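Build the 3D complex.
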Amino acid sequence: MNIEAIKSIYAFEMARTRRTLMQSVVSPVVSTSLYFIVFGAAIGSRVQEIQGVPYGAFIAPGLIMLTLLNQCIGNGSFGIYFPKFTGTIYEILSAPISTAEIVIGYVGAAATKGLIIGTIILATASLFVDITIAHPLLMILFFVLTAVSFSLFGFMIGIWAKDFEQLNIIPMLVVPPLVFLGGSFYSIDMLPPFWQTVSHFNPVLYLVSGFRWSFFEIADVNPWISLAIVVAFLGACLAVTAWIFRTGYKLKN
Amino acid sequence: MRGPAPAGIPSDLPSHGYCMAPIVRIENLTKHYATGFQALKGVSLDIEEGEILALLGPNGAGKTTMISIVCGIVTPSGGRVTVAGHDVVKDFRRTREIIGLVPQELTLDAFETVSNTVAFSRGLHGKKPDPALIEQILRELSLWDKKDTMLRHLSGGMRRRVLIAKALSYEPKVLFLDEPTAGVDVTLRKEMWQLVERLRATGVTIILTTHYIEEAEEIADRIGVINKGEILLVEDKAALMKKLGRKQLTVELAEPLSAVPEALSGFRLQLGNGGQSLVYDYDTAGERTGITGLLAAMAEQGLRLKDVSTEQSSLEDIFVELVGAEK
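Done.
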């Protein structure tokens, strides 16, 4: 295994994060703080508890997931799209590196950045609301699996995208509705039966529900089913990525 | 076609024993792009270890496609390429460890510094960090004082040097230079040639594509001409010049002529300069040039000579002739 190559790609991507510290870290912290001020403190204080959890705390796992998904998809996609855009991808393609090593380098860095920011958001949330974590290990497992899966998903978008519009279309138009309609701000019990059924087709519901269970032991879906869905999503992303590199799809002529 | 080995290496020896096999072997390589364009039509070429091979060809001839396949950037449609005996597709790790590539386009990450981008290239090739080597390379390419400068602040010539530094950072045994001196000034071009010479002295095999015939003539051991996806020839440079190089003898006459005298019609002469001179084309590869006979015949005709000069065709003439004949 070309460990030096993995380290180089990982360090290169993390250096990019340091160069753009304001937009990488400060921006999500500010926007999440605004969510907590508006939905947690202002509106949340007038909303009744959901399944015994104060509304401000109830929305915390969903907001962390929202940030995590956005960060991981954004970093995963940009990391590989930018070399394609500038042409420096030639260096990756002509280096003695396997598919797995390329993916570990790029996706590892995107996931690391997502996890760092997710942790900062969690710390920020605890400044506004009381947060207890009932199952820390399961929380970490959900946290890491989600970060890796969606960084990989972002990586695939980065390879697929042929311009900046395509690069942004999924993170901007597809992810927010899925997160907002995936029970981040409410329990799907509150929805009419038809929309409850529709919600079960939303993969983010399983992420948010499982993640929330690890905090408060309340969930819309059995947490183990949630975990299985996350693992299945990761497996699907891995399979598509392997296919991309085997065929050279959008990477090689 | 397969080109002969460079001077001093017999081409008909078996590829085992004391005679080394080619470092790069390209066999019947084809490439069809999705657009339907056939960039390579069964190219075969052997590149010997330690030589400098210049590939000449017009735009779209297939030079970059061929290099890109050897380096792993483009997938071949057919044929096979081996580097140091390893298949570039199946054993890509082994082959890419020893191949360096300086691409034609100035593709660099604008927001990275010179030293970081060079160190990154070394890491990608699985080599441990070596700041002393990076310093040596940057100094050699006159980039050391720019080591902390962001790449977007560099001039075109400096970016070209950074691309070369990146390729040298992982100490390749085979170096592909795709149009290395395109867009650089004359001084830098000469420096590049010196660098190529120094690299060759350390045993690096160099394959360069170029539009500058002068460049190939100056530094290459062998010349390959490629056009429309086919290799037209690969020859030792000196042999090529000798084989295809035509010479022209111009005889300035004391008295102008209105036509070539009948007695000299066997010499394929042309009148030049309004009848002031006779121009004689001859082949340097021939056993007899015919010059002695021509001069004797002219003397017999009583023609008085004012001056005599000869001119050898350049590589450029040969190239234009070859590619032109294909059209």
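Chain A touches chain B through 29 residues (CB under 8 Å).
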